[in-house]
Each structure stands twice: as C-alpha cells, then as structure tokens.
Specification:
Elements (H helix, E strand, L loop, with lengths): L1 H15 L13 E3 L7 E5 L3 E9 L4 E5 L7 E10 L8 E10 L3 E11 L8 E10 L1
Length: about 130
C-alpha cells in the first residue's frame, strides 16, 4: 500500500510539471549590428534579440524603430552605452532589446533621425527576423 501511495504521488507530481517549459537562459540570444543589415536571422520564442547601433553623444540624432514588430518581438528597453566611460560626447552604442514572444516573421527596421523632426532618416538598417516556436 505504501509503494502504491508513493507511486501515485510521483505520477501526480510529474503530471503537474510542464514537459516543455521554456527556459529563457537556455535559448541563445541573437545580436544584430549595422554590419548585418539586409540579413535574415532566427530567434527562438522566449529568446532575446539585441540591436546595437552606433551613436555619438552631443550629436542631434536618435535611432528609432520604424517597423511594426509586435506580436513577434516585444521591445524591452533601450539604453545608451558609452564606449569610453566618463567621456561626455564620446562614441557610444544605442542598445535596443526585444523579447521573442510569438512565432512568425517580421521585418525589423530602424532609422537614424535628426532631432529637428525631419521625417527622413539619414541612415537605416533592416533585418528579417523569424521567431521560431
């Protein structure tokens, strides 16, 4: 009787544990830069995609994602990282992070726009991103 009870508990515990739980740490992140513009990449659902774009402090331009990438990619944040810490106005990178949330293919496009409100980008990057199940 005791072994039957233990077997029942084990089966119930195993049934309550998802067999295909996605571990985000086990999904390889994908990193893109302007060097990869025009390419196609894949990222697994639950994974992370980072887009790293060059910037310079004090220059009146900003990167902006101009394409609709939801629901496949969800923007998680944007930060500017100085290449030489403590040097104001020096070279930097704008890092935009996305989570891959739904299978499908999207075109990810970002443009570098002047702060003046001009609607024409002075530089663009485009990638085809497929989010796999």
């Amino acid at each position: 009787m005791k072994s039957l009870l233990l077997a029942t508990v084990f089966v119930l515990a195993a049934a309550a544990t998802p067999a295909f739980a996605a571990d985000p740490a086990a999904v390889a992140p994908v990193a893109l830069t302007p060097a990869e513009t025009g390419t196609a990449v894949s990222v697994a659902t639950g994974g992370t995609l980072t887009l790293t774009l060059p910037a310079r402090g004090g220059v009146p331009y900003a990167w902006e994602v101009t394409s609709v990438v939801e629901p496949q990619l969800i923007a998680q944040g944007q930060e500017t990282v100085a290449k030489i810490p403590g040097r104001a106005g020096g070279p930097a990178d704008v890092v935009i992070t996305f989570s891959a949330d739904a299978p499908g293919t999207v075109e990810l496009t970002a443009g570098l726009f002047p702060f003046t409100g001009e609607k024409t980008a002075v530089q663009t990057v485009t990638y085809t991103v497929t989010v796999t199940p």
